[in-house]
């Protein structure tokens, strides 16, 4: 089983790359990357090898924690690799874990394909499994979401920007990059997030 790779990106498109390592090109499906790796770039990734009778796929993660979360996600009944990949690519791991621990079905339903029943099942099956992740976040001072943005404010930002036509996944990606000052009000946080969205398009 392949658990880690480093090398040169020789092809990069959509959600996949080919990573050259010791003369071998590995096709990797990306999970949790803030941006698409560029051709010629040297990167290192943690990988999960998915094997079935007619399928062999390698999923690549920029951090070990993302890989471990993915491995836990796909133990949930009805959550396969595609759904797990969708969760990780749509929502920051810290926010997803927080939603599970706080039983926030509304937050989980922001993820495409997750309805009330799936949200309830995720909470039921993952709470005990994600306790260690929640503890590590708290220990590292990351129990709250991105800098100085409360859950209520974050939802207001999402609501305002989806009304302008942006996708939730785009907004979440932008929020990963924005740093808010403690004194900044909600309207300024929306403006800063909108500015980041403009950079990413």
Please characterize this protein's 3D structure.
- It contains nine helices and five strands; from the N terminus they run βββββααααααααα.
- With 201 residues, it is α+β, with helices and mostly antiparallel strands.
- The protein folds into three domains: 4-61, Nucleic acid-binding proteins (OB fold (Dihydrolipoamide Acetyltransferase, E2P)), CATH 2.40.50.140; 64-141, 5' to 3' exonuclease, C-terminal subdomain (DNA polymerase, domain 1, Orthogonal Bundle), CATH 1.10.150; 151-198.
- It has a five-stranded mixed barrel.
- It starts with a strand and ends with a helix.
- Mean pLDDT is 84; it is low at 141-147.
- Its main location: cytoplasm.
- Keywords: ATP-binding, Cytoplasm, DNA damage, DNA recombination, DNA repair, DNA-binding, Helicase, Hydrolase, Nucleotide-binding.
Q: Please tell me how large the radius of gyration is.
A: 18 Å
The percent range for strand residues is 15-25%
State the helical fraction. 40-55%
Spans with pLDDT under 50 lasting ≥5 residues? 141-147
Largest pleated sheet? 5 strands, mixed, barrel
What's this model, at a glance?
This protein is α+β, with helices and mostly antiparallel strands. The protein has helices spanning 64-73, 81-90, 93-101, 105-108, 116-126, 131-139, 151-162, 168-177, 186-200, and strands at residues 4-13, 16-21, 24-30, 42-52, 55-61.
